[in-house]
Amino acid sequence: MAYINIRNKEIQLKIVYYGPGQGGKTTNLLYINKNFSEKIKSQMVSIDTYGDRTIFFDFFPFDLGQINGFDIKIQLYTVPGQSRYDATRKLVLNGVDGIVFVADMTASMRRKNILSLKNLHENLMTYNKNIFKIPLVFQFNKVDLSQKGYPILTPERLTDDLNRQLKRPWIIASALTGQNVAATLKTVITMTTANIKNNLN
Amino acid sequence: MLDLDYNNLVMGVEKRLDEIFADDLQIHSPQSAKLKLVKPPSLASLRKIIMSLEWEVTDNHLNDLLKELNRLQRAYIKDDQLQKLLRLLFFLGRYIRVYKSDTHPYVFNSLFRAYNGVIKITSGKYSNHQKTRIVNDEIKRYLSLKAYLKSKNKNISRRTLKRVNTLEKSRPSPIDSSSKQKPYPYKDASKILSTTLNNDFRELKKFIYLEIKKLRQDLQRILALIPKKT
User: Fold this and answer.
1) Structural domain that includes position B91
2) Reported pTM
3) Is the pLDDT of residue A165 over 50?
4) Does the beta-carbon distance from B77 to A168 stay under 8 Å?
5) Is residue B57 in some structural domain?
6) Of B39 and A121, which is predicted with more confidence?
7) What is the pLDDT of residues A48-105, one digit of tens each?
8) pLDDT tens digits, residue range B77-125?
9) How far is the alpha carbon of A192 from chain B, nearest alpha carbon, in Å?
């Protein structure tokens, strides 16, 4: 749940990038870190990585500054996508306010995307959170692969697989080139802020 | 008071994010056009479909309605109240598509009333509190309609069951009818009957004999497969 301190006028939002292994969650954060770290005056912290694989999690806190008298602080997290690190994923999801589900558009990743979403649903249930109620944005990542001639899943197929019941906003992106990385982050932060009202109620 | 602050807060956050990511959002504008799908579109096409449904209920109109409702649900993702009404309309539309001409007229009334609710909510003339009341009223009506239809279906099934039972009782059983039946008028009837029975019996005997033969062969084959103990 969002940390809201009415007295100090401070709001802290926790946003988690979730998805199958090697789907591009860390690449999303790396792009933001590389291109906007000066503007948001923050640095990404990567905890326990083995080569290019996340074993524990990546953490990227930043401050949006004073808005309407409230100090808005955003914390971005990624989870390890590999199936064996389920305990870590569960741990990182504790107190989550908004989720970016980074789905891999590679054709061979169809099953893994579905399994990862199912895993997200199960892990959220352990914290009594409902996937249908939490702010969630789908990012269909690795669209750049189609230009290189790799077979990719169409957005329609991905929407049908993952978003048929949830009906959440989805964005086609390429974390590697930075295409729509910021747009995804903007959407999830806006949705999460809009959801604060429910938390206050 | 809190509502006003909250709305300003969301707008403020959006503005600040635009400032931070301005360059990036501009560079990737063609792709971020996808985001525009999320922005609320007009309800003109929904109105058109509802009006056509008022005139004539066809499969095409119903399919269009469900498609349009799906689109609107995606578009109005942030509007909780409208989402509820759109979902309600979707359920009603789906019900009509399944039951077709057997649909109860109350369902159509409910559909048109829910649509009016959507129009009211999007008109911008009502406060949040009034909107919630409109939606809650519609949901209550929908639930009572659902309960009514359920009870009606139950009654129908009970009634049909009762009718079937009475029909069964009134219909004479084959045993009774045979006992009351008059003797066959043909004089050699008993002779014919005995020969047909004999033939049937012979055929049955032959069939059983063949089946036993087959079973014996199968059994022998299975036994041959089992290794003998030394």
Assistant:
1) 44-156
2) 0.53
3) yes
4) yes
5) yes
6) A121
7) 555 555 656 678 888 888 888 888 888 898 888 776 778 888 888 888 999 999 999 9
8) 767 888 888 988 998 988 888 887 778 888 888 888 888 888 888 877 7
9) 9
- Position B177 scores a pLDDT of 47
Chain A CB contacts of B73 under 8 Å are 167
| CA–CA distance, A129 with A144 (Å, rounded to integer) | 34
ipTM above 0.85, yes or no: no
As a whole number of angstroms, the distance between CA A166 and CA A136 comes to 9
Whether A64 sits inside 8 A of B31 (CB atoms) is: no
Answer yes or no: is B60 within a domain.
Answer: yes
CA dihedral sign of residues B69, B75, B80, B82:
negative
Residue B207 covered by a domain: no
Better-scored residue on pLDDT, B56 or A108: A108
Considering only CB atoms, B13 lies closest to which of A167, A171, A189, namely: A189
Count of CB atoms situated within 10 Å of the CB of B77: 19
State which residue of chain B sits closest to A178, comparing Cα positions: B24
Q: Do B18 and A186 touch (CB under 8 A)?
A: yes
Residue of A nearest to B20 (CA): A39
Q: How is residue A159 written in tokens?
A: 């929407």
Contact partners, residue B217, CB within 8 Å, separation at least 6: none
Strands A10-18 and A45-50: unpaired
Residue A154 has pLDDT above 60, yes or no: yes
- Residue B175 has a pLDDT of 46
Residue B222 lies in a domain: no
| Structure-token pair, residue A137 | 């944005």
Residues on chain B touching A35 (C-beta within 8 angstroms): 24
Please say if the pLDDT value at position A113 is more than 90: yes
Contacts of B78 in chain A (CB under 8 A): 191, 194
The full set of domains in chain A, from first to last, is 3-200 (3.40.50.300)
Mean pLDDT for B154-166 is 60
Count: domains in chain B? 1
Location of structure tokens 């291109």:
A35
Strand, coil or helix: what is B141? helix
- Mutation site, A73, A141, A180, interface B, largest B CB count within 10 A: A180
CB atoms closer than 10 angstroms to residue A176: 17
Q: What residue of A is the nearest CA neighbor of B29?
A: A180
